Amino acid sequence: MAANAVSTANTQIKILNYLVKSLLEAMDGQTSAMEELKKEHANQIKARTTTFTEQIETLKVRLALTAKRGAKVAMTVALQSPQKLSALISVDNAPADAVLKSDFARYIQGMREIEDAKVTKNSEADMIMTAYEDNPNVRQFLLTNLIRRPDSKVLQFRIPLHTLALSLDKMGDFPFKNPEHVQFTGPALFIRGTKSHYVADEMLPVIGRFFPRFELCDIDAGHWVMSEQYHACIDAVINFLTKEV
């Protein structure tokens, strides 16, 4: 047991060192820009909709801090600026245009109801969200976006909901269409939920043309892989990074 604990700790330290190194490389020459972004803070996000490519241009200098914006953001940066990345991990998404499921519009409707109710507790928000999503893990994942402003007890969502709603039609887009023009030749891990439709078998050849060194990891889950199978997903990430560090 002690040996296993030490091994796990050493692996975690290696991964942390890897991520810190990647962050520093991504920030190379952009310290002043990062400082300006810190001052502006995420709460000052302009409530506007942009095309996917324009969003990428905005995110370039802060990719390491906003990776959770989506797997397609990471894939786009990997193809557009491959020198910035050492490796890529995509969770249940593919490099192709996709139509979002109706779940997303329903989730935004529930999130709007939460804000209209001016809730002060996560439990109150979760109670409202049960009408829109049965799975408690998915609900909790969505509610991680709730924050409380310093001058208010009321919970609200970090990103303006009208911005999300206006962006839904474009969120499934992917800006690169021809793998003959761009490739990322670094190591890439594609994790997919076997109950999800976003990375179908017929997409694997396309993934291989954009990312010739990709590995595939199937996990028994829907689209919300991290919420439904957290430990399996983390294990896959650790195994991949351990090989690549």
Layout of strands and helices, then pairs:
Elements: H1 2-27, H2 31-40, H3 52-59, H4 71-80, E1 88-91, H5 103-117, H6 122-129, H7 136-143, E2 146-148, E3 155-157, H8 161-171, E4 188-193, H9 204-210, E5 214-219, H10 225-228, H11 230-244
Parallel strand pairs: 1-4, 4-5
Antiparallel strand pairs: 2-3
Helix pairs in contact: 5-6, 5-8, 6-7
Describe this structure in words.
The chain has helices spanning about 1-25, 30-40, 50-60, 70-80, 105-115, 120-130, 135-145, 160-170, 205-210, 225-230, 230-245, and strands at about 90, 145-150, 155, 190-195, 215-220. The chain is mainly α and about 240 residues long. The protein has a three-stranded parallel β-sheet with strand order 1-4-5. It has a two-stranded antiparallel sheet with strand order 2-3. A hairpin with a 6-residue loop joins strand 2 (about 145-150) and strand 3 (about 155). Helix 5 crosses helix 6, helix 5 (about 105-115) runs antiparallel to helix 8 (about 160-170) and helix 6 crosses helix 7 (about 135-145). The longest helix is centred in the first third of the chain and has 26 residues, at about 1-25. About 20% of the residues are buried.
